[in-house]
Amino acid sequence: MASVRINELHKGDLPWIIEYDESKCIQCGRCTAACSFNAIYPAAETRRTNSIASKNKTERVLVIKQNISLENYCRGCGMCANVCPNGAIKAIRNKDDKYSVVYRAIKADSFKKGGRSNLNTEGRTLDKIKVGRISQMTDPSLDAQRHTFELKTPFGRVLKADKLNFDIRDGEIIETAQLPPVRWIYPVIFGDMSIGAVSWRMWEAMAIATAYLNEVMGIPICMCTGEGGIPTKLLKSRYAKYMILQIASGHFGWNRILKAMPDMTEDPAGILIKIGQGAKPGDGGLLLASKVARYVQEIRGVPKADLLSPPTHQGLYSIEESVQKMFLSMNAAFKFKVPVAIKVAASVTSVSVYNNLLRDPYNIVGGFFLDGLAAGTGAAHEISLNHTGHPITSKLRDCYLAAVHQGRQGEIPLFAGGGLGQSGSFAADAFKLICLGANGVFTGRMLMEIAGCVGNDTGKCNACNTGLCPAGIAAQNDNLVKRLDVDKVAQNLVNYILATDIELKKLMAPIGCSTLPIGRSDALITVDKHISNRLDIQYGC
Amino acid sequence: MTVCKIKTLKNNIRMSTQELLQTIYKKIEDGVTEFDIEACGQHDIGSAVWNKDGKELRFHVTNPGQRVGGMAMDGVKILVEGSAPADVGWLNSGAEIIVQGDCGDTAAHCAAGGKIYIGGRVGTRSGALMKHDPRFEPPEFWVLKNTGSFSFEFMSGGIAVICGYGCEDTTSILGNRSCVGMVGGTVYVRGNVKGLANCVEQTPLDKFDKDFLKSGMPEFLKSINRGDLYSELTDFSKWSKIIPLPKELKEKKIPVKEFISKEWFKDGLFGDLVEDDGEVFTLAQSGKARLRKPVWNPKLCVECDLCKNNCPQRAIIKQDKTYASTDEKCIGCGICAAVCPRKAWIMETL
Amino acid sequence: MCRIGAIKSKSKFHPSVALKLMRSQQEGHDDSGFAFVMQDMGGIFENYKDLPLLSMAATVEGTRLAEDILREIGFSRVMQWSPNINNRKGLKIEAMPNYIFEVLQYPKSYKHATKQEKEELLIDTSIRLRKTLDEISAGFIYSFWPDTLTLKEIGSPRDIGTYFDLWEENKDLTSSIITAQCRQNTNYDIVRYAAHPFFLEGYTGLVNGENTFYEKNKFYQQKLYKGYIGFESDSQCLLYTLHYMNKILKWPLKYFKHIITPLEYDEIIKREDKEILLRIKASLSHLEINGPNTLLAVTPDKELMCVCDSKKLRPVVIGRNENTVIMTSEVEGINDLLPNRDITKDIYPNERETIIVRNDLTVERWPQ
Lengths: 541, 350, 368
Description:
heterotrimer, A: Alpha-Beta Plaits, TIM Barrel, 16 helices, 23 strands, B: Pectate Lyase C-like, 16% helix
């Protein structure tokens, strides 16, 4: 038996403890076979026998043990419990977890993880807001199932009416100049998760769901590619028009996009310049080498190594510059026919950025995506994930009201994301943010959850960074990726959006809205006085 | 019995609805069964009144306000000369209501009995929520011309007949988005119909339908003084009927799987980048789906057979002092390696 | 609900006609007020069509303050009309001390001013008068514009008519257009300004309805033009949008429906003018109006206009003969005034059209 020293990792330090009931175990081996983290293993244990007849006073017994290792440790994903026929094994959260302390003490490196913030303890603002304006006696409410509702929002630079340069000829308005491109899209955007951050199967399932919703259901949903390129096949297909191509500081995949351009038959839905990410603002993209599979290397043009996108775009040191370089170039690349938007992490400074963009004289800023701190990530330094960022709700509201103050609301559409659906009410979160001024929302979290993600906001699994995702979503190990059923995930994504569509209407109907209630904060109340003051919505108690 | 005449406007002073209705109640109490009312927009004329001896009550009305014949009952006949505003025959439970001119919005709304005959047009949401109590005759709602939009919303029973007379140039006799949420009843319509809800179907008339229209038409036309139109309106070439679709036909969705096989890239989006035949692995599946596999080292093996005996999948076979794990059976659990006293089995990560 | 009406006639008529139009629609409103705007004046105002006519109700102090301001700016009184007040006991009216209807001459310095400069002066003066009167709650200025007279009061329409002696026809006070409302305005405080019709620079609007996009509209309109003030009623938004579109943007009236009730995207893309309509839908999305409503309006060209919400939730009907067109909430009002008209020519506007009554009383129906 190995000697035990104090200054090592011990079982009691691990975030999750395996609780194993030997009496129920039939030694089928399925738990260890299923564990993608190699956190448990079968072992022969020496036991003393109580038999007085036997010469041997010990016997060897087969049991399941937990690995005590900095690399192969239990994340609490629960796959062992899922496969065990007898309920003999499960992972229990360890309240005395010291893992990340020990990790730092031993590795001299910052601790990284995937998933979501673990500091979700304050209670969510959106949950303290209710849709409090119910049309009853005054204006008749609508019927969610039967009346017509239009769930479409403009995406692109919207000019003020007096800047449209309209002319009147024979009593008809005519256009006199090429105006910035505007798309009418569904107010929910499939958030930017790159090929690499998620598995090829997950990415394909999202793309299928997007195509299906557009072409079969008539729901014009868009999907943002994330910064990991896009299969050339898709670019050259008719489905390209549902895709928002992302460019971030790493510029991954753009070589292939440029090469494919002459063969593209459709303009993409838009371009999203990613400056920051809500889950880890101020930090760049992070794809650890373990996830840089061969096809990822190919699409991105990189070797198998940790891939770090710098936190800032090289060469952009002011908002004016970024407008000039990124917006102008991206607009130009698609001949000023594709809306170009920007995504930043919500921050104390978001309003300044938004104000600057609103004043953009070239009308080339087509959307402002604001990502709040409860957003998820494929991989981040824990310190960034847990301690940086800004909640989405008040910042979205600030930006909208800043535009209102200048009489420019709606000119650069606002899209909000970050932690939507955290308490199981995605449609309600989306609706409330729209009432507070968002043109729409984007989500990655919900897509993962729909696809079968077992993680949560309080530290369960959160191993997206490892490539060992047990659900095949953020995995890059072939055998794990193949656990994901593309058909089923695509169907579930579709179903979830159809359900969300019904639920959004369920909220639009009682407030008497047949179109999106963008900026209709009068429909909201809050049970929290501070939130009431901060967001300028009615306080109810 | 003499007719009770009521003039509701005298010297610029208008009788309020309450005053008029109280007067009517009083007269009915006194045995009056016939009224001639020169109204000035008073509401609810003919509503919820009956003769205690079961005699018929008749109202002849000019210029009524809203809800003429609203909540009207069996044994009541109301004739409106000219047009009437909203809610004619609202919740009618048995009266015969005739409006010789046009009606405002929501005529026959929630009507559940009786007959409503309209000599002109009716407004939006007319016929909405009409219903039929099977113990009684179904409500009938006859309109000479056309309806406004959103007509027959949520209709659940009864019969409506919209004759489309003089509406040849009208895009849709029933307005836009008619029959939304309709679950029962029948709407007969003559002429163009556009923008129907997708929960209903428009079909040709059968013999029963034609017989019904033929038998009911004379009384309707007589009531609105348009007997001359009988032959024109009983030419059934332009008639059709609208009935709710059976539930199973309302929602037709193609499964995503079918979309993938018909419309999506044949070898998948990443077919040229990864090897993927589309198989979905289950947890703890044997063969190529394993995360790890055992590798045997003959140099260390002492042939104790513990591995073979403990393998839960019976995957290990021994042949001539050689052990092997069968891929098709092995799930990669690592028990062989765990029980081997000599580390002759090592688990290799795949 | 309130009840509204608009009458346009080839001959000049007295406001008693409006009272009679609304009388039979009594139970459609709450008997809480009466207001009207007369345009294209006759009678004693016939000869002053080009000069601004001030309509104001004020306290003694307010009257003095207003007169001071007008004098200071350089306006001089040309003519004044006072209603013949019948202050008999028991009338349900909350009357103001003074009602001022006076025709003023522009300041001397405006002798050669353009129409636009004069209009600018009138709106600036109106805003200043309103602000001053508001500060000490000393009165209300309803309109200050040529050829336009406004009266608004709280109380029973019948008694308001009696108080101002409006039931008896009188050749002095006539016009060819009158818009009137009997109001129920319990959604917000009962404020005189909140009573329709609203008037701004030649545009008159009155609405039977609710505007659930009120706050959204208001936020946007406040920054569009200095004259967009008040917002005592969510219906003012409809007038301001009409004014913004037609006067400021100079777009034809037929685009109004495309702003307040834009077609759905799927409808628009089937149309030839889809590019324009989508731009309008995006750029003026904050002026969209949801909720049930019917708008009656008068344009500076003195044409009548009627539009409804996209679900046609509120009543309206148009009846006419050779001499008169009447738009009103319910048909009984028209039956009282035009009993012998051809009712088959009555128009029941639908949710996707604009009705325009030209100056020769031809009625046009434009599909959206």
